[in-house]
Amino acid sequence: MKHPIFAGNWKLNHAPADAEQFMKVFLAHYPRRQDRTVLFFPPALTLPTVAALVNDRSDLAVGVQNIHWEDHGAFTGENSAAIAHGAGARYALIGHSERRHVFGETEEQTGLKVAAALRAGLTSIICVGETLEQRERGDTVRVVVRQLRAAVSRIQPSQIIGSLLAYEPVWAIGTGRTATPEDADAVHTALRAELGALTGDQGRAVPILYGGSVNRINAASLLAVPDVGGLLVGGASLEPEGWATLART
Ligand code: 13P
């Protein structure tokens, strides 16, 4: 039986006061469920507010959208994995496409960040995905496998097992253009084979989420793909009733 994960990435939206209002409405529309987990990725300054509001719900948790790879030091403006954990985060997005493509995060840095998350007790959601140009060149699988290998290059193979993966094609993020269930199936299957190769098979059980223009209409067909273990959602996670409905898919 699948235990799907619904992760809402708020990106740069919802100040603490908005988040309080959001969670009030969400919690009213989303009674506890044991068959799935819902994750919230608020902006770092909003994270403690959301964490406090999900504290008594084992089916809900909070994550941080980004961490620095060092534990402390002279890194003005950054947050460490330990600070995020102390603020209530239990998960960390690593290598989100906006970090890679807007902020120039390198594959090497994603590897360092996965190791930092592990040191602090955060579960990494390692995000991979190809650009439209890479897809049109037929490079999708090569690119996502390379990103996965780099992201786990600083941890032991056995430690990959506690992480999660998210396949988010760059061309599908915020564009309204979703991968078809067949596209997602092909890439998830390739990632799962690589997870198996990296871990001597145990890692094949690592959940792989799909992300990129997921909404209430396409969520069910994507979740029906056997290798899709959950959804990583941006825009459609920003409104509480809609998000509660999507998370009940
Ligand atoms: P959208 O759902 O808005 O396309 O964003 C996807 C995403 O980047 C989630 O991390």
Overview of the molecule:
The protein contains ten helices and eight strands. It starts with a strand and ends with a helix. It has one domain (5-247): TIM Barrel. Strands 1-2-3-4-5-6-7-8 form an eight-stranded parallel beta barrel, surrounded by five helices. By secondary structure, it is of the alpha/beta class. Helix 1 links the parallel strand 1 and strand 2 (37-41). It is globular, with a radius of gyration of 17 Å. The relative contact order is 0.15. Helix 1 (16-29) runs parallel beside helix 2 (47-54), helix 1 crosses helix 10 (240-247) and helix 7 (140-151) packs across helix 8. The mean pLDDT is 97. The structure holds 1,3-dihydroxyacetonephosphate. 1,3-dihydroxyacetonephosphate (13P) is lined by residues 9, 96, 168, 173-174, 211-214, 232-236.
Quick structural gist:
By secondary structure, the protein is of the alpha/beta class. It has helices at residues 16-29, 47-54, 81-86, 97-101, 107-120, 132-136, 140-151, 181-199, 219-223, 240-247; strands spanning 5-9, 37-41, 60-64, 91-94, 123-128, 164-167, 208-211, 230-233. The chain contains ten helices and eight strands.
Assign the CATH architecture.
Answer: Alpha-Beta Barrel
The H-level CATH homologous superfamily, spelled out, is Aldolase class I
Bound molecules: 1,3-dihydroxyacetonephosphate
Share in β-strands = 5-15%
Number of strands: 8
On the 0-100 scale, what is the average pLDDT? 97
Q: Report the helical percentage.
A: 25-40%
Q: How many structural domains?
A: 1
* Tally of individual helices: 10
CATH fold annotation: TIM Barrel
Structural class: alpha/beta
Low-pLDDT parts are none
Question: What is the alpha-carbon Rg in Å?
Answer: 17 Å
Gross geometry:
globular
Assembly form of the protein? single chain
The arrangement of helices and strands along the chain is EHEHEHEHHEHHEHEHEH
